[in-house]
Design a protein that fits this description.
Layout: H1 3-29, H2 42-56, H3 62-72, H4 80-87, H5 89-102, H6 107-128, H7 133-155, H8 170-187, H9 194-203, H10 211-233, H11 238-259, H12 265-291
Helix pairs in contact: 1-5, 1-10, 2-11, 3-12, 4-10, 4-11, 5-10, 5-11, 6-8, 6-10, 7-12, 8-9, 9-10
Length: 300
């Protein structure tokens, strides 16, 4: 293993440790029995396990998690972006360690695109954490529509085929960095990074397999960075986020080290239907909120 990857692993380990410390402090600072506190229930742990299992295999986790939470009213809409970034951070870090170690990609390209994604996430989280419920609903409704489109495009083989390159140079590197910055900022809203990153990598002529370490590495760094901002502002659900983490990390290890692959096309079509439904309900909630009083907290 080359020295750059070792440095990435050390940096990721330190960032993850700092994230855990900040999260623990935030939990201790909350009043005992406060809203959204306590140990996650079986449903919250199950959502973490299922979404992260399939995320490791290439389905993505943000859109399915949002759909599951809205189905049961687990998390208020305005807290969903923060809860996604906080709760999925450590499972995705686990994925990053695995994929960076086993999939070859140019280290300069890998580091540059990861750094750009983190910068975008830092900017995006600072903006999204202060949004109102209605703006979150509008933004996430649109993001979920995009996610459903990406799932459908994957099943219909409408993504560009890509090439064989494992690294970028010159103008393509610049496009890759700018694209990663934009995708990082959108990640904090809940659009997910998997499918957009696959498209970006393929359009730049890279081997589609190179998307995995880039995507997982970017998410592993940007999600704790974004999560720290959400934690600082209290814009997340502690219990639901903890459910994602505790259920997700073991599921990632099972998916990556034991299962490794499954026939996923049928599952993706199911996800398309569920995510479209969630998007429509999210947008309807935003429209209703614009014409009257917002739903009371008791509705959740």
């Amino acid at each position: 293993m080359d020295s750059v990857k070792i440095m990435l692993f050390v940096a990721l380990g330190l960032l993850s440790a700092a994230f855990v410390v900040a999260w623990v402090r935030a939990r201790r600072a909350r009043p005992a029995g406060g809203a959204g506190g306590g140990f996650p229930c079986a449903w919250e742990l199950g959502v973490g396990a299922v979404t992260n299992f399939f995320d490791t295999l290439g389905i993505g986790s943000f859109a399915p998690t949002t759909s599951a939470w809205r189905f049961r009213g687990t998390v208020p809409d305005e807290l969903i972006p923060g809860s996604l970034n906080v709760g999925h951070a450590l499972p995705v870090a686990t994925q990053a360690f695995i994929f960076i170690a086993v999939v070859e990609v140019g280290t300069g390209t890998l580091v540059s695109m990861i750094a750009a994604s983190v910068a975008g996430a830092w900017l995006g989280a600072g903006v999204v954490a202060g949004w109102s419920r209605r703006r979150i609903q509008l933004g996430m409704g649109i993001a979920l529509l995009a996610a459903a489109t990406f799932f459908a495009m994957t099943n219909l083989d409408l993504f560009p085929g890509g090439g064989e390159a494992l690294a970028l140079q010159g103008a393509r590197m610049a496009v890759g960095v700018v694209g990663s910055f934009v995708l990082g900022s959108l990640m904090t809203l809940g659009i997910g990074l998997y499918a957009p990153c696959m498209i970006l990598v393929a359009l730049l002529g890279m081997d589609p397999r190179a998307a995995f370490p880039i995507m997982m590495g970017a998410c592993a760094f940007l999600m704790p960075v974004a999560g720290l901002r959400f934690v600082k502002r209290g814009s997340f659900s502690p219990r639901a986020s903890l459910g994602l983490t505790l259920g997700g990390v073991p599921a990632v290890l099972v998916a990556a080290l034991i299962v490794k692959s499954l026939p996923l096309e049928t599952l993706r079509w199911g996800v398309v239907v569920v995510v479209l439904y969630t998007s429509v309900t999210m947008l309807r909630s935003a429209v209703r909120a614009s014409g009257g009083a917002a739903p009371s907290p008791e509705a959740y």
